[in-house]
From TrEMBL:
<dbReference type="InterPro" id="IPR010699">
    <property type="entry name" value="DUF1275"/>
</dbReference>
<protein>
    <submittedName>
        <fullName>DUF1275 domain-containing protein</fullName>
    </submittedName>
</protein>
<feature type="transmembrane region" description="Helical">
    <location>
        <begin position="89"/>
        <end position="109"/>
    </location>
</feature>
<keyword id="KW-0812">Transmembrane</keyword>
<feature type="transmembrane region" description="Helical">
    <location>
        <begin position="180"/>
        <end position="213"/>
    </location>
</feature>
<keyword id="KW-1133">Transmembrane helix</keyword>
<feature type="transmembrane region" description="Helical">
    <location>
        <begin position="53"/>
        <end position="77"/>
    </location>
</feature>
<dbReference type="Pfam" id="PF06912">
    <property type="entry name" value="DUF1275"/>
</dbReference>
<feature type="transmembrane region" description="Helical">
    <location>
        <begin position="115"/>
        <end position="134"/>
    </location>
</feature>
<feature type="transmembrane region" description="Helical">
    <location>
        <begin position="12"/>
        <end position="33"/>
    </location>
</feature>
<keyword id="KW-0472">Membrane</keyword>
Length: 218
């Protein structure tokens, strides 16, 4: 992995862990960076109905729409010769900033079924859907930055193979370890940020995304 790719994967891994944890704490157990956890919570909500069921129910179609929108825009930017990654990062920044603004309007966020609270979560999930999409479409050589299950599985396999003397596995190990560690650090940082600053903590990912957009080469 090139040095620039490593820096990018670390930054995006940190961002995903940070946003997912902050959102989980502030938005009544909502996972914003991936939908697997929300399927589990939705199943629990069906068995034990709770006020947050609608937020969990709506986040899936919003996530799907976010991925679809990103795909269509990336195709359009490709045809126009526009900078696809930079524009994708700016789109994610826009949605994340809108989520922060909505959280300000929703304050105090104390009811999961309040319209502005739900909109805050859906905008945040939409922003992370965009990251999932451009990660697949534009960052194919970079380790996944939003969902760590596959990364950790491959990391353990490569660790075993490295200990067996496999040189190729050692190279893959170096590629995977940094985004996994960055995601873990992001989770801890997101929790601390919410404790200290509430939803204002989402301003850090907004700034990080702007920095990545400015640094993007394509």
């Amino acid at each position: 992995m090139e040095r620039g790719d490593t820096k990018q994967s670390v930054a995006l891994g940190f961002l995903a862990g940070y946003v997912d944890t902050l959102g989980f704490i502030g938005l009544f157990g909502l996972f914003t960076a991936h939908v697997t956890g929300n399927f589990v919570l939705l199943g629990r909500g069906m068995a034990q109905p709770a006020p947050d069921i609608w937020l969990k129910l709506l986040v899936f179609p919003v996530f799907v729409l976010g991925v679809a929108l990103a795909r269509l825009l990336i195709l359009r930017w490709e045809r126009n010769g526009s900078r696809q990654l930079r524009n994708s990062l700016l789109l994610q920044t826009l949605l994340m900033t809108a989520s922060v603004a909505c959280a300000w309007l929703a304050a105090p966020v104390d009811r999961p079924d309040a319209p502005l609270t739900m909109l805050t979560g859906l905008l945040c999930a939409g922003a992370m859907a965009v990251q999932n999409a451009y990660g697949k479409l534009l960052l194919g050589k970079v380790a996944a930055t939003t969902v760590m299950t596959g990364n950790v599985t491959q990391l353990v396999i490569d660790l075993v193979d490295t200990l067996r003397g496999d040189a190729d596995a050692r190279g893959r190990l170096k590629k995977l370890v940094w985004p996994v560690l960055a995601f873990a650090v992001g989770c801890i940082s997101g929790a601390l940020a919410f404790m200290l600053a509430g939803f204002n903590g989402l301003l850090l990912p907004c700034a990080l995304l702007l920095w990545l957009a400015c640094a993007a080469s394509d």
